Structure formats: C-alpha cells, structure tokens
Amino acid sequence: MTLQPPVAIGGVGGSGTRLIAELVRNSGVFMGRDLNESCDLLWFTLLFKRNGTHDLGDEDFNRLADILAAGLVGGSPLDACSREQTLLLGSEARPKHPQEEMRAVADTLLAATELPAHGLRWGWKEPNTHVFIDRLWQRLPELRYVHVVRHGVDMAFSSNQNQLAIWGARTLGDEAPSSPTRSLKYWCNVHRRMQDLLASNPDRMYWLDYDAFCRDPQDGFERLRRFLELTDAPSPDLSSVRSPGEARHASQDLAIFPQEDLDYVKALGYPVFRRDERITCDGVD
Q1: Angle between helices 58-73 and 80-89 (to 10 degrees)
Q2: CA dihedral 134, 139, 144, 146 (to 10 degrees)
Q3: Type and span of the H or E element at 208
Q4: CB 183 within 8 A of CB 161
Q5: Which of 5, 70, 115, 167 has the greatest CB tally within 10 Å of its CB?
Q6: Residue 125 pairs with which residues in a beta bridge?
Q7: With b meaning 16 or more CB within 10 Å and e meaning fewer, what string describes 229-250?
Q8: pTM for the full predicted model
C-alpha cells in the first residue's frame, strides 16, 4: 500500500497552528512522539531551529530531513553518521529550549527511529517550518505544507515574537531591537515569500486564513480535508473552535507603521482599524 503524502504545518508564531495541528492529528495523521504543549514537534526544533541551518549544503540539509522522516516513520535506525549528528545537535541549546531539553529530545528521536514502522500517514507541526519549506520540498517533494496566516497588524502586537528574534536579522538584513514596527515588517516579508511559493507550488502548499477558518470551521476544515486528501479520515470535533474576537490592534496607534506595510496587510483582505474608528467586523484575540 502506498502511503499518502506527509503533512507539515507552519506559520509565523502565534498564527493558530496549534488548533490546525490538533484537528489534523485527530483526523488520523501521526504527528510525532515528542510534542510540547503547543503541539510543536521538538524533533524539528532540534534539527532545524538554529541560524546555521541556512548555511548547510544540500547533503547536510538533506541528512537532517532524512533523520526527521526516520523518526516520524519508524523502522529505520540511523547510520553512525546520522546518530552522531543527532547527538551533536542535542548538545546545543535553542532559543527557549535549554541544552538539557535538547539532549532529551535527541534521545527520543533516536529511540523513535528504532521502533517498528507504524504504517500511518505522518507529518509534523512546527511554526518555523516555513523558513525551510522550499529546501524541505527538495528532499520530500510530496510534502503537503499548510501555512497558517493571521492578521499581520494584530500579530505585530502579539507577545509571541520568537521568530523575529531568531530570524529577523537574516530576513530583514539588519540588527535592531524587537518592536511592533519590525514585527510587521518581518510578517510582510515572510508572507510575500509565501505568496511566491504558493504561486509556484499550488498542489503542495495550502494558505489557511485562521480567522476565516474560525468563523466557519465546517467549511474551513472541508477545504483543508480536500487539500490534504483526508477523505477517509474521521471528522474531528469542531465544536470548540471559537470565532475571533475584537481586533488586537484596534486600540493601538498605527502611525508607527510604514503605510506600505499596512497596505500589504489590507491587500491580503484584512481590515485595518484606526483606534478612533468604530469596529465593524471580527478581528482576532
């Protein structure tokens, strides 16, 4: 039996990837054995969430992708080189993840590769997946990627700015303190790149508007189901999905943002409210 394509879920941190991952998991997709409270697969964090990953040649990057797949599929113990690489990565801390945690994650990954293959459809959720999705496609060409998107101006005022701290300098080309202005610039940069990748990979990437999904989860999940080909999977319980609340940015001074960034957010269909305007439609909490 040929297994269906693997699944990956990502987005700028705080975009709602956890809800989407839980729904996909409850539809029968195996999402790994070492998840944090946000359903992030810590094996991906171990292997890829570090600045040096961008500079790897194809052979070294592909080895990391193979290690990840081996842990998720099972039944393929790593060779000596890959085991050594995994343990070496486990000796390094990650942002928000101390070295002791990464060493434990390396151990669970190595153990998973030695378990019998489970034969299930597999995948992972880790927001930073989008950073490397084009290179992951080179090694895993059948991978179906779900990019979860949330209102960029609201995201600029989110407390979750981990990606900006890690990738901001490389993405934006300069070093600067974190701020809502810089956060929105990062968001715009990421989503312009994602739009380009979507245009050239329409069968491998799904753009999921989180707010629209939460306003009509039945329709939203049916669209996602079709993209991922989950036709024979059980339907997850959608009763806990809440419609988005008031826009986070509605009470903020938007004069701090360049107009071109606000215009880009609006061009993607997101209303931008000034704090002296009446709120007339749903935003996000």
Answers
A1: 90
A2: -40
A3: strand 205-209
A4: yes
A5: 70
A6: 9
A7: ebeebeebebeebeebeebbbb
A8: 0.92
